[in-house]
Specification:
Layout (H helix, E strand, L loop, with lengths): L1 E2 L7 E2 L2 H12 L24 H12 L6 H8 L8 H10 L4 H7 L3 H4 L4 H13 L4
Antiparallel strand pairs: 1-2
Helix pairs in contact: 1-2, 3-7
Amino acid sequence: MEILSSPQQPDLLTNHEVMTLLTSNLAPPKSKKKPVSKKNQPNTKSPPPSAFQTSALTYLTSLPPPLSPLSLLRTLSSPKYSLEKTEIIQLVNLLPDNLPLLNVVLPEVEERFEEGVGEEILEVVKIARGKEK
């Protein structure tokens, strides 16, 4: 998902970040103030979730979550792999488990990387999914 912060460089979010953002927006605001009479109390109720929020949360909760998206991001961001930001986000979001799916996210894996790096990336992703050898 993209957050349009500037026309030149949109910010990219992982599925985990989108889900955190959506669930935090749906949570009722926490007030540390003393209770006020209902007559003088401002309307602090959050609006009901939109159809987009509901469908997005339904989709995101149906996906197998990575065990540690931050460690996966750090591992894939290493200079060893020399991946673009968009490729890293796609790897974290899609969590490919075989070479054909990896080729969808990272075009020309065999030409771009040394032999075995594609399998190594898949192993890193499998560990993040909780599917170790």
